[in-house]
Amino acid sequence: MERYEIVKDIGTGNFGVARLVRDKFTKELFAVKFIERGQKIAEHVRREIMNHRSLKHPNIVRFKEVLLTPTHLAIVMEYAEGGELFEKIHGAGRFSEDEARYFFQQLISGVSYCHSMHICHRDLKLENTLLDGSTAPRVKICDFGHSKSVLHSQPKSAVGTPAYIAPEVLSKTKYDGKISDVWSCGVTLYVMIVGSYPFEDPEEPINFKKTIERILSVHYSIPDFIRVSKECRHLLSLIFVENPEKRITIPEIESHPWFVKNLPIELMEGVGSWQCKDANNPSQSDEEVLSIIQQARNPSEEAPNAAGRPLMGSKSMDL
């Protein structure tokens, strides 16, 4: 970490603390996620790092490197100074349909690329969708802590954030992670347009049991006072389908009439065009990264919590 100087804390969670740092030589800002060495360096941390570093797309937070301190594993990533999409929608109440489509198109572009690389995210939500600081904000998908490569097996563990989770994930049997990601994208779109979660009971929004019941029965509606086009309602109806085999796929979303309206030129090129663009140019090999992760499994060499203040829990969970 000698190369970086800490600017400020920018977030906490059950993983540890995230801090904004500045490269002393280039003056570029980065976000660094600190995870305490020892027991917290579990298999999901290795999976998060290896999956994230394999992704190179303008709508995904860029992975830079992993470093080891005496007390923590440090994951260095691109800093998205625009903050969470959640904060933006919370401040606005809800978006116009055109604005929601603008962000949804980018979200789908990033997810489509992940799926082309055989990685399902499994925790897509507004809080894991960041924005850069430009006047025309670019979506940046982050937090691959629940991600899984589906090259060798389908996921079966129920993970994610309750409000965004697909019905089949709750069954705790094997499911198609790519199709469950589609459901989460649909929840994100609904929240942007309506300003509330589709499957929360309006009378008891914090009642977890009722939320699960409404997800399993696909019980949602759009309030009468919110104007939503027929095309958008149609797309949501194709996403919120209980049977994952009958749910719309990402490629089908990309050809849906509502989605393709005002589609930016750079998103028309398809996922294949990003294979050689926006490369991370990793300074570390897979072997070096895996070695650092293995070393981080050894207990801290100094007193714990050296990286920051007491930690807070995350809304994502294993169900």
Brief account:
Its EC number is 2.7.11.1. The chain is α+β, with helices and mostly antiparallel strands and 319 residues long. The protein has 10 helices and 12 strands.
In angstroms, what separates the terminal alpha carbons? 36 Å
Question: In sequence order, what are the helices and strands, one letter per element?
Answer: EEEHEEEHHEEEEEHHHHHHHE
Q: What is the arithmetic mean of pLDDT?
A: 88
Based on secondary structure, the structural category is alpha+beta
Shape: globular
How would you describe the oligomerization state of the chains in this entry? single chain
Q: Which regions contain 5 or more consecutive residues with pLDDT less than 50?
A: 276-280, 303-314
**What proportion of the residues form beta strands (DSSP E)?**
15-25%
Biggest sheet strand order reads: 1-2-3-5-4
Radius of gyration: 20 Å
How many individual β-strands?
Answer: 12
Number of domains: 2
Which range best describes the helical content: under 10%, 10-25%, 25-40%, 40-55%, 55-70% or over 70%? 25-40%
CATH homologous group name of the largest domain: Transferase(Phosphotransferase) domain 1
Total helix count?
10
What do we call the CATH topology of the largest domain? Transferase(Phosphotransferase), domain 1
Instruction: Write the CATH architecture name of the largest domain.
Output: Orthogonal Bundle
Protein model, in words:
- The chain has helices at residues 43-53, 85-92, 97-116, 167-170, 177-194, 208-216, 230-239, 250-253, 257-260, 286-296; strands at 4-13, 16-23, 29-36, 63-68, 72-78, 83-84, 119-120, 129-131, 139-141, 148-149, 159-160, 317-318.
- 39% of the residues are buried.
- Helix 3 packs antiparallel against helix 5 (177-194).
- A 5-stranded antiparallel beta sheet has the order 1-2-3-5-4, with helices on one face. A 3-stranded antiparallel beta sheet has the order 6-8-9.
- The two termini are 36 Å apart.
- By secondary structure, the protein is of the alpha+beta class.
- The longest helix is centred in the middle third of the chain and has 20 residues, at 97-116.
- It is built from 10 helices and 12 strands.
- The model is unreliable at 276-280 and 303-314 (pLDDT under 50).
- The chain has 2 domains: 1-78, Phosphorylase Kinase, domain 1, CATH 3.30.200.20; 83-268, Transferase(Phosphotransferase), domain 1 (Orthogonal Bundle).
- It is an enzyme of class 2 (transferase).
- Residues 277-319 are annotated as: Disordered.
- This is non-specific serine/threonine protein kinase.
